Amino acid sequence: MKDTKPWLKPALELGPVLVFFLVFILRRGETTVIAGQEYSAFILATLVFIPALALTTAIQWRLTGRLAPMQVATLVLVIVFGGLSVWLNDPRFFKIKPTMIYLLFAAILGYSLIARRNWLQAVLSEALPMDAQGWRKLTFRMVMLFLALAAANEIVWRTMSETSWVYFKTFGLPVILFVFLMANAGLYRAHATEPSADDKGE
After folding, report:
1. CA 137 → CA 110, 176, 196, distances in Å?
2. What is the pLDDT of residue 19?
3. Neighbours of 84 (CB within 10 A)
4. Confidence (pTM)
5. What is the pLDDT of residues 25-40, one digit of tens each?
6. Largest CB tally within 10 Å, which of 33, 86, 177, 197?
7. Chain centroid to CA 159
8. pLDDT of res. 2
9. How far is 113 from 187, CA to CA, in rounded Å?
10. What is the DSSP letter of 79?
11. 3-state secondary structure of 6
12. 120, 106 in Cβ contact below 8 A?
């Protein structure tokens, strides 16, 4: 893996989301005509978000030489559901995209628990060294988190305004994920392992 600045990865991941938010807020209540078709601010923001995410994902792959499976899955679902929203001029498809992503992640991690394969450990072990029991506990908690996030997304977009959903997607979900990671600090400490001799020699 190529060395990159520590701030670059989160900047690339958050960049498209902030672009979506700014386009929506700046054009909220207005319509944009493209090729004779009127689009709301939400659809316009979605139209901008799709290539922005594709670009930042390509940059990450170019800089690091690899992409996490979840990044690839997210990009595919964004293209599919975002594309449907733009093509059909219907924001509902893009709003259910987070639900599909979180259910997919929950299913993948849930299967890894049943199959007794620590896929989460394979992805994050370098940054977070823990024993096998710690990874099983964290995986189970993340399955529960993703199921709760899927349910929360459905409740918000179906019962609240479009603006409320945009704020929830842009700021609420990242805050929830951050709080979840911080709340598991005790788990990280209790199951922490020492770096291997090979790691120490690198």
Report:
1. 12, 19, 22
2. 95
3. 17
4. 0.84
5. 999 989 999 888 899 9
6. 86
7. 22
8. 53
9. 17
10. I
11. coil
12. no
d(CA 136, CA 142): 10
Coil, helix or strand for 128? coil
Cα gap 90→115, rounded to integer Å:
39
Paired tokens of 120: 């989460």
In degrees and rounded to multiples of 5, residue 194 shows phi and psi of -75, 145
Pairing state between β 31-34 and 37-40: antiparallel
- Find the largest Cα–Cα distance for the chain: 64
Q: How many CA atoms lie within 13 A of 159 on its CB side?
A: 6
Q: How far is CA 173 from CA 3, 27, 166, 200, in A?
A: 28, 23, 10, 36
**110-127 pLDDT, tens digit each:** 999 998 888 787 777 677
Token pair of 22 as six digits: 């700014």
Residue closest to 40 by CA, chosen among 152, 150, 166 = 166
Cα–Cα distance for residue pair 125/121, rounded to 1 Å: 5
Secondary structure (DSSP) of 132-196:
HHHHHHHHHHHHHHHHHHHHHHHHHHHHS-HHHHHHIIIIIHHHHHHHHHHHTHHHHHHTB-PPP
Rounded to whole angstroms, the Cα distance separating 143 from 131 reads: 19
